[in-house]
Amino acid sequence: MDGLDLEALCRDEELQTINAEMQTKLDDFALAQSDMNNLLNSIEIAILFLDLNLRRHTDRASKIISIRNSTTMLLIP
């Protein structure tokens, strides 16, 4: 193995390690997001998460107000 092959092998191993760490973080984030969704949907409180658009809402909120498109439009009676 020459120097270039060894360097490429080292970079490949480093990238594999970084990818594995990132996948672990993504899995942790997905689990936390799932837990948050379950929590929000299990409580009987109407919650809307807004910035310029509606980002998220609980099931209870959708029973109180009409939500046509969950990312853009609210129809408030």
Describe the structure.
This is Two-component system, chemotaxis family, CheB/CheR fusion protein. It comes from Halomonas daqiaonensis. This protein is α+β, with helices and mostly antiparallel strands. The chain has 2 domains: 1-42; 43-77, no CATH class. It has helices spanning 3-42, 59-64, and strands at 48-50, 54-57, 66-69, 73-75. The strands form 2 sheets. It has a two-stranded antiparallel ribbon. A hairpin with a 3-residue loop joins strand 1 (48-50) and strand 2. The longest helix is centred in the N-terminal third of the chain and has 40 residues, at 3-42. The N and C termini lie far apart (73 Å).
In short:
It contains two helices and four strands, in the order H-E-E-H-E-E. The strands form two sheets. Strands 1-2 form a two-stranded antiparallel sheet. A two-stranded antiparallel ribbon has the order 3-4. The longest helix is centred in the N-terminal third of the chain and has 40 residues.
How many beta-strand segments?
Answer: 4
Largest sheet: 2 strands, antiparallel
What's the order of the H and E elements?
HEEHEE
The Cα radius of gyration reads 22 Å
How much of the polypeptide forms β-strand, as a percent range? Answer: 15-25%
End-to-end distance: 73 Å
The average pLDDT score comes to 80
Q: Biggest sheet, strands in spatial order?
A: 1-2
